[in-house]
Amino acid sequence: MLDPADNLELPTIPSKRYFTIGEVSELCAVKPHVLRYWEQEFPQLKPVKRRGNRRYYQRHDVVLIRQIRQLLYVDGFTISGARNKLVMENPGGKDKQRLEAIRILIEDLEDVLLLLEHA
């Protein structure tokens, strides 16, 4: 995660539920077309889309964008390097959900096997 000292030049994130792409652009010092591009490159970045395909970012999206910005612009990572770094920092995400689903499925199959053996 970003060290707050690294983002002293960036404004503080207001306590709102949703932010427009223009607001996020100002909060993160990144142009809107770059934000749209990053959505394609970073699977973790998924703003809510509403009427007219308008994007609404939540606070965690803004924090993630600042982290991506730090990796790319300050630390000198490539897009793929930044993507890999983010995956390494948060290995949980979807993988934990998948592993939990597999574990439950295995338990259910073992229960079915026991029922079939006793029948």
Name the strands of the widest sheet in spatial order.
1-3-2
Number of strands: 3
Number of helices: 5
What is the share of helical residues?
55-70%
Task: Name the structural class.
Answer: mainly alpha
CATH class: Mainly Alpha
CATH architecture: Orthogonal Bundle
H and E string: EHHEEHHH
The total number of structural domains is: 1
Percentage of residues in strands? 5-15%
The value of Rg in angstroms is 20 Å
Average pLDDT, all residues? 85
Main beta sheet, described? 3 strands, antiparallel
Q: List low-confidence stretches.
A: none
Which of globular, elongated, flat, extended, rod-shaped describes the shape? Answer: elongated
Distance between termini?
A: 55 Å
Properties at a glance:
Multidrug-efflux Transporter Regulator, Chain: A, Domain 2; mainly alpha; 60% helix; 119 residues; 3 strands
Tell me what the structure shows.
- The protein is mainly alpha-helical and 119 residues long.
- The chain has a single domain, classed as Orthogonal Bundle (Multidrug-efflux Transporter Regulator, Chain: A, Domain 2).
- 60% of the residues lie in helices and 8% in strands.
- It contains 5 helices and 3 strands, in the order βααββααα.
- It has helices at 21-28, 32-41, 59-74, 79-89, 93-118, and strands at residues 19-20, 48-50, 54-57.
- Strands 1-3-2 form a 3-stranded antiparallel sheet.
- It is elongated and about 70 Å long.
In short:
The protein contains 5 helices and 3 strands.
Per-chain topology:
Blueprint: E1 19-20, H1 21-28, H2 32-41, E2 48-50, E3 54-57, H3 59-74, H4 79-89, H5 93-118
